[in-house]
Design a protein that fits this description.
The longest helix has 36 residues. The chain is of the alpha+beta class. It is built from 14 helices and 13 strands. 49% of the residues lie in helices and 21% in strands. It is globular, with a radius of gyration of 27 Å. The strands form three sheets. It has a six-stranded antiparallel β-sheet, sandwiched between helices. Strands 8-10-11-13-12 form a five-stranded mixed β-sheet. It binds adenosine-5'-diphosphate.
Amino acid sequence: MLYMFIIAGVFTGVAVATVLILSKKKHQKGGSKGTDHALAANLQDEKVKSEIILNSIEDGVFLIDEQRAIQLFNPAAGVITGWDPKQTLGIDYKSVLKFINEKGEPYAPEKDPVNIALTEKRTVKDNQASLATQAKKVLSLAITVSPLLDAEKNVRGAVGIFRDVSQERQEGQKRAEFVSTASHEMRTPVAAIEGYLALALNDKVSTIDSKARDFLEKAHESTQHLGQLFQDLLTSAKAEDGRLTNHPVVVELSSMLESLTDGLKFAAQKKALSVEFVLGAPNSVIDASGGNVVKPLYYVQVDPDRIREVITNLFDNAVKYTDAGKVTIGLTGDTNVVQLRISDTGHGIAAEDTQHLFEKFYRVDNSNTRTVGGTGLGLFICRKIVELYNGRIWVDSVVDKGSTFYINLPRLSSDRAQTLMHEESSQTSALGSK
Ligand code: ADP
């Protein structure tokens, strides 16, 4: 609560400071002397207030202009990064805020939260960022960057707020290690119980009466659920501390999705739901079944097993939370982005729930979900996997009408895809000849 208040305070303070910077220019151009005087006194007042806020909070705050040069760097930002705030003024933010990935390399532009906020004109939150300080010490950072837009929606700069979360992240890592060890240890005996129950239920190996069969079927179902829970816990713990196995290769999504849809159909058919695969924008003229139309190729660089896991998860949810109608898997894109969508005609999700949906263990609390089993980990795992590839996942939903889950992934041009595929095959043949 206090943190929310501080954030609200900081953004108000920064907004005041921004207005001050912008209005200073106007002020210099002229105006009546009397009103100027009153305005100056008022602004001075506001300036003092915003300075008090910016100087006293423990979160780092910075403001950059449209040329990406730092215009404001509060004392806490200086303490966290090791930079003297005065020395940062006028410098390109990249020289000061050195975001690095887990290999210690600088962030690619499409992962840099400041760059994303400026280019995509949206607020970006990154709770998994790492930053090299001036003394080259690596810190874990939680950062939020918002673009500053003028009345015509042109980007005039960006404002960011960040916190050193190294200690929290270390503690989180220890917790994740515990969960992953515990779930791994528990999964093994559960698998054995499940196996023996399956043998007991198998007519060819066991003879049981109908009452015993009924009990064992229930036990088998619960054990399967428990096994799934441990598996999800293990995957989410791995996703949290970056230990998810990940072997990205070039994947052409339209062919992958087409064959995946075929495999997934059966689960939907059990509930009499129809399944459709649509290539191109919704209502597009491109015919997914072939015909004479040249199908666009949507190349991305991902681990096919991981992305299949995401699609299967979203598809299973669509089936799980839909009683009648259809599930549609769609694929479209532009030059830079491939967009995948999975729509259903099911229960839908209320707006107050959609914002929490991708958090760990979040399940919508209503009669529909209470009767349908689940762990609340599926969408969290999906988000973690999509973020691994610098992608984004979100949902649009209307209660009682249905939901559409979207995934945006960076698109590879056909040329780039061919080059990468060529590199992949020469690496594989080099490994094979060793
Ligand atoms: P779960 O194992 O509970 O399905 P998920 O993380 O996959 O966990 O989903 C979280 C919650 O989001 C679900 O409990 C459900 O309430 C809601 N949900 C997910 N997908 C859909 C959907 N297609 N339609 C309606 N509700 C959904």
